[in-house]
Amino acid sequence: MKLVITGASGFLAGELIPLLRDRGFELVLVSARAEVLINAYPDLTCASYDDLDTHLQGADCVLHLAVKNNDSAGELADFRAINVDQTLSVLHAAKAAGVGKFIYTSSFHTLSLGGPTSDYARSKAEAEVQLAVEHGIDVSVVHMAAVYGRQFNGKLSILNRLAAPLQSLAMTFLGALRPTVHVDRVADRIADITNGKCSAPHYLYEPAQENSVYTWAKRAVDLSFVLFVAVVLGWLLAIVWVVIRMDSHGPGLFVQERVGKDGKIFHCYKFRTMQQGTVQAGTHEVTAASITRIGHFLRKTKLDELPQIVNILRNELSLIGPRPCLPSQVELVEKRRALGVFDVKPGISGLAQIQNIDMSEPERLSREDALYVALQSMPLDLKITLATATGSGQGDKVSSD
User: Fold this and answer.
1) Burial level of 344, CB count in 10 A (0-12/13-18/19+)?
2) Distance, CA of 339 to CA of 64 (rounded, Å)
3) 162, 206, 271, 392: which has the highest count of C-beta atoms within 10 A?
4) Model confidence band, residue 198 (pLDDT cutoffs 50, 70, 90)
């Protein structure tokens, strides 16, 4: 297949070109510095943007790598000129030439909690919005974590001074603090998109659950939370249990089947906040009248979640992760499975919950869960923990009927 790569003189292109060539693509390299490309790749077709229209003829896909990066100086208008205006110009040229696919590479900077903060991220996010409304060509936006390969770039370039074993060790520690991705994964995803083998959303990252530093740190935090609740708040758990028994008929604890990691079913423990005999369904499917008097308080303060330390101890649940759903919530289960959400342990609180996205919106919730899986890191888990502790997210809404 014929693949036209714009911004082909940059770092990412330099890492990708040999990999894509090995995967059998016919490559056309385009850059404002065409002479650099000609010297670096004498066996490939190289061109400037002035000749872009000619080389788009017969192309199957455009991989748009041209970017004014986050380590570049300039005002917002300077970033927009490259990251928005030039992007749309190349896209429209590709449409006019009858190219079927357009791949736009973005970064995790546009996905950060709280929204884009830099001029670079704002301009990239603006381009994503503009591309979402384009018709007549199949547009894929690929969000990438910090990319590394044979060499490191940007803030990671200091690692180029280290020996290979030390680079690997450093990347393991770094991967626990921020999402990263090897260029091999990027090349594989580009090949899959071009060949129509995968669908959006496209988040490229090294799975945090495969990072030993992150998994050990996360488990240590989980067990510390269990110890704190059991030792420091044990008296409170006993009082809550007694009050629930006195407030309404039924047991103090509520046990319900939930879907956990890898889609396995486990029994989730909570303090009972609803009347005995309430239908086993998602919270949004039951009425407010089903909640007991003390239940309103427990749900608002999140005290009803504390018995889940049993699930954390059993390694069925984590402090932070996508909230586990019911097996009967078939639509949500299927969407989560398709997006890889079940690759990680569920949690007591998560990214969606602190934004008040609940299970009444399965499409939106599953996408936010998939975003958490992509952005997973110790700093993000800490932000979610602090947001939860300070009152963000009030749990699933009950039905108004």
Assistant:
1) buried
2) 25
3) 271
4) confident
